[in-house]
């Protein structure tokens, strides 16, 4: 999607917002006032939310829930279409990168009055999660449902063969000058077509059989599963006013040197070229085929990695950076009410239920994601342990408070439209990291123009 198309979309949503809220008709007048249409995108979560819906109906016979699940890309395009055609779902799963625009255009319902009326205890959630759903206008737009952080998934057969211990993997350090012990481990895990490792004489960086480090993409403007923790532990932050970016810092030397170091792993042969990474075979499939020693990813991917039966996968902490500690992005989802619904009371009842420990215990026991309610976490840890996962590396940054938020602002689509091609060009060696200074200026012009 180009910048002009995104701008047209935003203009359409701006005009749509008033009519949607004023019309208050989701095109389902024949449906009972107590039936809530609920959307989510993760098929792995459909069974547990179906269980939640059944229990909700048992406890609230006057209400029922119809769940519809769509894949990530279809989900958002259908949602926008629903806003425009007055057929959006009553309640839907929201994301930090999406809801700011919806809130800005009046398409999602503030729930402050409901929260106050029903005395909802916001302290039950993991620290910081409830605040993520307070918009730039100071209003609350959702109750947390789950959260995530990042770690390295590694192929233990490959690390064993390289003589790399779990202790070494879990005490990695990095810096943008020589990469620290992290780069040495990535170097050691890399093997060329003749079986020579990256730290052995004669290593052929142009004919690599196993890369020490895999990655999915260039990270765009958030770098959630690619570069975010390197930059954060180098003392960089996304913007002023985090998480509500008012002025971004993609041109900061701490950021450009971080990206320059990360890209150098391609030059050295320890990480695939951008063309290889984006060849059509996703990062987890390549990892499962034994092509990567380790890959960074989020906790929502535990189920996918568990399904890679041909490799034995374990988890390792993110590396300690120049600031002297580990840092992970902490993001989370929430359930949001469409502002145009005619079933506000039923929708709120469902959102409140989903945000309760009763519902999140069901989510926890499924062992798919980490529930937002802190008291539900022991059940989640037990469920993941039963599946063979020690999820401690995901939890430690949260417990230590060493986390940072996903960058949010109502202009996220336009920021993405600038930063995605800019980062793609850098990782493709079509541009230097210094080119991000111009990209950053373009981003900040967008923000200043929208004020």
From TrEMBL:
Signal among keywords: yes
Secretion signal span: 1-22
GO CC annotation: cell envelope
Keywords of this entry: Signal, Sugar transport, Transport
InterPro entries: Bact_solute-bd_prot1, SBP, TAT_signal
Compartments (UniProt record): Cell envelope
Protein family membership: Belongs to the bacterial solute-binding protein 1 family.
UniProt protein name: Multiple sugar transport system substrate-binding protein
Organism: Kribbella antiqua
Organism placement in taxonomy: Bacteria, Bacillati, Actinomycetota, Actinomycetes, Propionibacteriales
């Amino acid at each position: 999607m180009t910048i002009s198309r995104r701008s047209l979309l935003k203009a359409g949503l701006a005009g749509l917002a008033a009519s949607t809220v004023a019309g208050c008709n989701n095109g389902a007048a024949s449906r009972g006032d107590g039936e809530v249409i609920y959307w989510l995108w993760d098929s792995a979560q459909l069974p547990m939310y179906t269980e939640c819906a059944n229990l909700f109906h048992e406890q609230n016979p006057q209400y029922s829930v119809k769940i519809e699940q769509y894949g990530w890309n279809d989900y958002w395009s259908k949602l926008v279409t629903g806003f425009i055609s007055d057929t959006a779902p009553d309640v839907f799963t929201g994301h930090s990168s999406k809801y700011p625009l919806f809130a800005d255009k009046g398409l999602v319902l503030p729930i402050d009055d409901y929260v106050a009326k029903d005395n909802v205890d916001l302290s039950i959630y993991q620290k910081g999660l409830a605040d993520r759903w307070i918009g730039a206008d100071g209003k609350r737009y959702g109750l947390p449902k789950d959260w995530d952080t990042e770690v390295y998934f590694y192929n233990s057969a490959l690390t064993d063969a390289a003589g790399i211990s779990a202790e070494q993997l879990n005490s990695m350090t990095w810096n943008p000058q020589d990469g620290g012990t992290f780069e040495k481990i990535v170097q050691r895990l890399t093997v060329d077509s003749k079986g020579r490792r990256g730290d052995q004489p004669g290593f052929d960086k142009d004919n690599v059989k196993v890369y020490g480090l895999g990655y999915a993409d260039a990270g765009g403007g958030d770098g959630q599963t690619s570069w975010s923790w390197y930059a954060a532990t180098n003392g960089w932050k996304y913007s002023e006013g985090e998480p509500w970016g008012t002025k971004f810092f993609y041109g900061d030397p701490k950021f450009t040197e971080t990206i320059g170091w990360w890209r150098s792993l391609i030059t050295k042969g320890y990480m695939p070229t951008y063309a290889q990474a984006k060849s059509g075979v996703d990062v987890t499939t390549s990892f499962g085929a034994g092509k990567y020693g380790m890959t960074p990813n989020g906790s929502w991917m535990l189920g996918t990695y568990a399904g890679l039966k041909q490799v034995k996968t374990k988890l390792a902490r993110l590396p300690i950076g120049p600031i002297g500690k580990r840092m992970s992005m902490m993001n989370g989802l929430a359930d949001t009410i469409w502002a145009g619904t005619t079933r506000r009371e039923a929708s709120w009842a469902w959102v409140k239920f989903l945000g309760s420990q009763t519902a999140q215990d069901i989510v926890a026991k499924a062992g798919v994601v980490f529930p937002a309610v802190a008291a539900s976490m022991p059940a989640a840890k037990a469920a993941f342990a039963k599946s063979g996962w020690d999820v401690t590396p995901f939890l430690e940054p949260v417990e230590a408070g060493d986390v940072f938020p996903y960058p949010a602002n109502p202009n996220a689509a336009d920021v993405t439209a600038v930063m995605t091609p800019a980062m793609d060009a850098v990782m493709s060696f079509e541009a230097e990291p210094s080119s991000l200074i111009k990209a950053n200026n373009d981003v900040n012009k967008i923000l200043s123009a929208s004020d």
